[in-house]
Predict the structure.
Amino acid sequence: MSVAVPAASEATTPFGDRLVDRVLARESQLILGIDPDLRALWPQATDGPDADGPPAERAAVAVHRHCRALIDAVAPACVGAKLQLACFERLGPPGWRVLHETAAYARDAGLLVIADGKRGDIDVTATAYGQALFGGVASPFGRLPGLGADLATVNPLMGSDAIAPLVAAARAGGGGVLLLVRTSNPGAADVEDLALADGGTVAERLATLVDHFGGQGIGRHGLADVGAVVGATAPGHLLRLRELMPRAPLLLPGVGAQGGRVEDLAPAFAPGRAGGLISASRSIASAPALDGADPATAARREAERLRAAAWSLA
Amino acid sequence: MSVAVPAASEATTPFGDRLVDRVLARESQLILGIDPDLRALWPQATDGPDADGPPAERAAVAVHRHCRALIDAVAPACVGAKLQLACFERLGPPGWRVLHETAAYARDAGLLVIADGKRGDIDVTATAYGQALFGGVASPFGRLPGLGADLATVNPLMGSDAIAPLVAAARAGGGGVLLLVRTSNPGAADVEDLALADGGTVAERLATLVDHFGGQGIGRHGLADVGAVVGATAPGHLLRLRELMPRAPLLLPGVGAQGGRVEDLAPAFAPGRAGGLISASRSIASAPALDGADPATAARREAERLRAAAWSLA
């Protein structure tokens, strides 16, 4: 089926151009994944006065401090921060507040904000997710602010009408979306790699959806506002998927803890440096503290190593 | 790939048995979909003292009142309530609080609670979603309570290792999960209906995942704790999918506003009345107010009509 999404307004800088400008200005294609692990928070998380209230409130305050310390430590090496929504949702109601606060803190540090929730649902519901993650919604009670993300990850299983409202919501504010195409986990083989009767795989078909939806949102630098998640753990797929999505920014998770290597990702950068965004979470936040370094120093060192490795590829 | 999930503990009543008992006790297979639309809240939403605070707080209070009134009106005709997470998330931080409060209110009304978020992510993240939606998590700050859902919808695109942690989290507390198999929207044709080189369709392959994961969680009544979402809008798929998932509870959305008819859903009930759960949202909350009836009376009438239509099929 074909679902129309309005083209980007001329008054708004298309996301692809914002991305190119930001990558060049920061000399980085590195995305800091923020997936706070309650059992591995940095010492800064429990510094300062104890928070009052129930466990969820105290946990949320600690997670907020951890996230700020992480951003302070590595933002200079990064172009964006990817917030893993699940890790905030498990904090309960205070978690959603800390999610908003952390997004604002990352933005103030000059980072693009990626809401990693992998949402996808029927049209009216996808519209509600778009309001939640991007620009908010006008209501009889006044305007409800959204998370203000620059990008959100989207699960395309439900097809075009589940994708279109999220593209529209992102595009209206100069943002974009990243559709799951070929993820970094072993289970990606179960469904995404299935061969289709008409040729190609499920992932390749998803890639054609990325190219279709991005076609109306291409900036002057040639990058679209609809990109794809392609795991760094299976670089063998990358060349073919890049052929099918020549203008898509690719988010490449799975470097480090999941086994992916920056050196294998060159095809991602075919449309230019901003065509590939390297995402790393645990490998930065839990970088081995050599020489007795504190977590912030270790994280900064690992982030700078990843940044330099990716920058030298293009 | 094969991912192991522990079998249900003998100390916990398996979800399938809880579902059968509840359906028989309430003589209903109807699920009330709660998708609060900010522009169509019931008059009760703005009764009572005005809430203070910013628009999001005032909207959240109104949504909470609306949801309580809706549950009060139609719970007697229903066996469960399906909370559409997107509609709470767009309220911002207060929305997650109202989500928890509404889940508790539905539970107190005797309803099973379905968290409809269609989550799906790599193993560590799926674990975090499981903690958020089901039983919570122990943390250094004390136990963080989860939403306490009985069921959650799960997007299976990422495969077995994205599904297993959610099945495990649900099963540990006597709950279950519902994998998207063939959804009710037009875009379902884009990916779910693709024909595979080895025969069958993507949806049929997803159905085999449902059957696989449910195999270790079958209750004495023969129903599993892993079910499927199969849209009521395409009943032609239902017979074949039921063959592939003989023990799965099926959630059947799309009745009413999306065009599905209860009368077409008989194959869902092959394993017994609890084998098919009819989900309706807008068609109940916005039922036409004939004879000048108020929204609650109109909703109650429509819910009872749907309940009786489904009950008479089995």
Notes: Chain B is about 40% helix and 15% strand. The mean pLDDT of chain B is 94. The first helix of chain B runs from residue 15 to 26. Chain B touches chain A through 76 residues (CB under 8 Å).
